[in-house]
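Sample 1 of the test manifest.
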Amino acid sequence: MMRPYVQRSLCLVAAMAMTFASLVQADESESSARQSAARAILASESEQAMIVQDMAANPSPILGPIFEAWQRSQVYIYEAPDGARIPFMLMPDGSGSKAVRIDNGEPLVGPNGAPVVVDEATMKPVETFAKLRRAMRSTMDLLALADPAPATRQSAILKLGMKQSPEALPILNARLAREQDKAVKNGILDAIAIINLASPDPKMQIDALNQLKKSNSVPSRELVAKMAADEKLSPKVRAAAASTLKAIDNHLFWVDFFGTMFRGVSLGSVLLVVALGLAITFGLMGVINMAHGEIMVVGGYATYLVQCIFGTGVALAPFGISVNIPGFGFDSNSGIYQSYFLFALPVAFFSAAAVGVLLERGVIQFLYRRPLESLLATWGVSLVMQQLFRLIFGPANAPVYSPAWLLGSFSVGDVIMNYNRVFVIIFAVAIVVGTSLLLAKTPVGLLIRAVMQDRTTAACMGVRTRKVNTLTFAFGSGLAGLAGAFLSQIGNIGPSTGQTYIVDSFMVVVVGGVGNLIGTVISALGIGTLDQILQTGLRNPVIGKVLVLVGIILFLQWKPSGLFATKGRGLEN
Amino acid sequence: MKQEVSKKEVLIGAIVAVFLIAVIPGLNAFTPAGSSLHVSDFNINLWGQYLCLAIVAVSIDLLWGYTGLLSLGQMLFFSLGGYALGMHLMLMIGKLGQYKSDLPDFMVFLGYTKLPAHWEPFAHFGFAAFAVLWVPGVVAFIFGYLAFRSRIRGVYFSILTQALTYAACLLFFRNELTLGGNNGFTDFKTLLGFDLGTPGTQRGLYIASAVALVLVYVLCRWLTLTKFGKVQRAIRDSENRVLFSGYAAANFKLFVFVLAGMIAGLAGALYVPQVGIINPSQMEPAKSLEAIVWVAVGGRASLIGPIIGAIGVNGLKSWASQAFPAYWPIFLGAMFVVVVLFMPRGVVGLPAQIQEAWRRHKRAREAAAEAAAAATQVPKDSQS
C-alpha cells in the first residue's frame, strides 16, 4: 500500500532535485534559508508556523523543494550518536534515495563517515499541521512575489489579490514600491483594487472599481458583476460596478474579436499553405490531382525521417523487409536537434517534387486533355500511396515532435497568441512571397506562365512544353511537400492525413478562382476567418464547417468561376 | 432514326432477369444444403448487396456515362435512402432494443424521453418507402438546381458534389441530428412484420433487389433510346451546341441528376436491411469514388458495364480483402489507374478495343508489306 505513494513522491522530489542541482554554488541567502528551515523543523509545534512566516523576509528558491518535501512527509530527523538532531530530506539517487541534510545540503553521514541508510518503512517523518501548511503556502506566495520572472510574479500577485484578504495589502504595497516592471506594477495596482473591493468603505470601493475599469481587469469580472447585482451596496457603488463591468465586457468583446481574427488568419494560413501547391497544379495547369494530399504527406514523412536521422534513427519494416535507418544521435536538447526542421524543409520539398515528377510522367501526361479522367486516375494513385504509407510507416500517426520554440504563447493586450499560430502565419507569408517571386521574376517562372497561358504559342516560340509541364507539376508537388512538413509541426502526419485536407484545399482554389495566386490567398484567409467566426459564434466546430461548405456552394452561385476569374475567349472554360 | 432494341438483346436480357430474379433464389430455397447447385443463405445475402450496389452503379452511369456529369457524391443519395428506411426499421425495433424502450436505443442513450417530431411519420412503412425516393430527390434537386443554374460544369461540378457529400458526412456524425451519430442505425429486427434474421426474409429482399435492378435497367435503357436520351448524350458531347440549338440543358441535367439520386436512394433502402447497418461512413467521399471505379471498370455508357463492374469489383473485394488485406487497396488503386489509362471503355468495351487494335495492327502490317512489295518492285520495273 505504501509503495506507490513513495514512488510518486520520489518522482516529485526528482523534479525538485533538478532545481537543487542548478544551485550548486550555495550562496549566503541559501545557507541562511537552510538554517532557518532546519530551525523550523526542529522547533516546537507552536513556534513552527511563526518561523516559517518569518522566512518570507529572507527569500531563497531552496525553500520551495524543502517545503514541498516537508508537506509530502519526506522530511525526517536523524538522531546522531552525539545527541545532535539533524533534519534531513530524501532525494532520489539512482535506483534508491539518499538522505540530504537540510541545514547545509550535504549528504547525511554517520559518525564513521559512511552515508546513513534510511529505512522509509520504519522512520517517522516530521509531521505538518494545517496551520503550518497554511503558513508555508503564504510564505511561498510571498516568495513568488520576488521571483525573477515577471510572469511568475504577476500570477502570484493576482492569486494574492483574488483572495481579497486585507492582510496582503502591506505586502503588495511594499512590493509596489520596489517593483520595476511596468506590467507587474499595474498587476499590483489591480490586485490592491480587487482586495479593496471587499472594503467596507464605499469610497475605497469606488476608487478600486475605477482602477479596475481603467485597466480592464478581466480576472475581476466575476467579483465586479456580483457587486453590480448586490442589493445591499449603495447605489453609487453599484453604478460604478455596472460601469466597470460594461468596460470589462467591452474589452472582452474586442479580445474575443481579435482572438477569433487571429485564429482565423492562422487557420487561413494553414489552408493557404495546403492549397498553394494545388493552386499551381490545378489553378495553373488544370490538372485535378486527387493525390495532392498524399504528396503532402510525403513531405510530412520526409520531415519525420529527418527528425529520426537527427535523433537515434528509426527501424522500418515495409513488406516484411526490415530497414534500419541510422541516426546521428544528437541529444534532443541540443540546438542542432532542435533545428532539424530547417534541414527537413528542403528534403520535404524535393522528395515530394520527385514523387510529383513520377506521377506526371507516369499518369498525368496522358490525361491533359481529359481532366475528369485525371481526377479518377490520381484518386487511384492516392489509394495506392495511402496503403504504401500504411505498409511502410505503420497505421499510426508518425510521432513528429514540435521543436520547443513552437510551444507556449505570449499575449498582446489579453489576446493570447500561440507561437505555433504565429509560425503558421509567417510560414505562409514566406512561402507565398517565394512562390509569387519565382513565378513573376525568374526565367523559369516566365516559362511556366507562358505555357499555362497558351501552350501552342509557347511551343511555337520554342518552349519545350513537355518539360515545362513536368517542372511545373514538380514545383506544385514540392509546395505540397513543404505544406506536409509544416503540418507535421502543428498537427498529425498519418497515412490518411492527406484525405482530411483535400476537400478543403480544392474549395480554396475553386473559390479563389483558378489561374492566380491572389485569389487563392484571399479565399484561404476568407474561408479560415469565416470558419473561426462561425465556430466561435455557434460553439460547434462541425456545424461551422458544414455552413462554410454550404456558403461556398452559394458563393459559387454568385461568382461561378471564383473570386478572380481569368477571363478568356474560350467557350468551354 | 429511332433506335430499336434488337430481339437478341431482349432475349438475353429476359434470360438474365429470370436467372437473377427466380433461378438463384429458387436454388437457395429448393435445393438441399449439400447439393452442388445449392446457393447458401450467406451468398444470397451477399448477392443481394451486390445487386443494390449495381443499381447505384447504373445511376452513376446514367449521370456520367450518358450525360457527362461526374458526380462524386452519389453515395450520399444512397445513404439518404438507407437512412430513410433505417428510421422506419429503428422504430420497428420497438421494445426489443437493449433499453426496452419505445425509443431507439441511441436516443435513450442520449437522454431523449420523447420521439422527435420528424421521426413520427416514419413509423408508417408507406411514408418511409416514399421518403426513400423523395428525400434524395429533394436534396439532389436543391443542389442540382443551384449548380446547373450557375453553369457549374466538369471538374467543378465533381469537386462540389464531393464537398456536398463531405459536408453531409460531417453533419451525420453529429448526435444533434438525431440520426444515431457515428454509430448510425443497426440491430434492426423486423420489416413489414418479417423477421430480418430469417433466410426467407433475406431471400425476399434479394428478390426485391433483383427486381429493382431489372426495372431500373429497363427504365434507363428505355430513357437512353428516347429523344431525351439523345439530348442527354448531346449534352455530354457538346453542351454548348445543345444550348445553341435551343435546349435548356440545365433542365435536362437537373432531371437526370434528380432521377439518379432517387435511384441511388432506392438502392440504399434495399441495401440497409440486407447489410443490417447504416452509418455516416457510407457518405465518405472515398465511398462515392469507389462506386465510380465500378462504373469505370465495367465500362461506362453501356448500362450493362456498370452492373458487371459493381458485381465484379465487389466480388473481388470480398475475396481479396480477406485474402490480402494489406494489398487490396493497392490493387484497387492500381486497377483504377490502369483502367483509366488503357481501358477507357472498361471490361465491356475490351473486346471491341482489342478488335480495333488488332485491325490497326493488321492494317499497319499490310501497309508495311505493300510498301515492302513496292520497294522490291521498283528495281524490277527499272530492269525491264
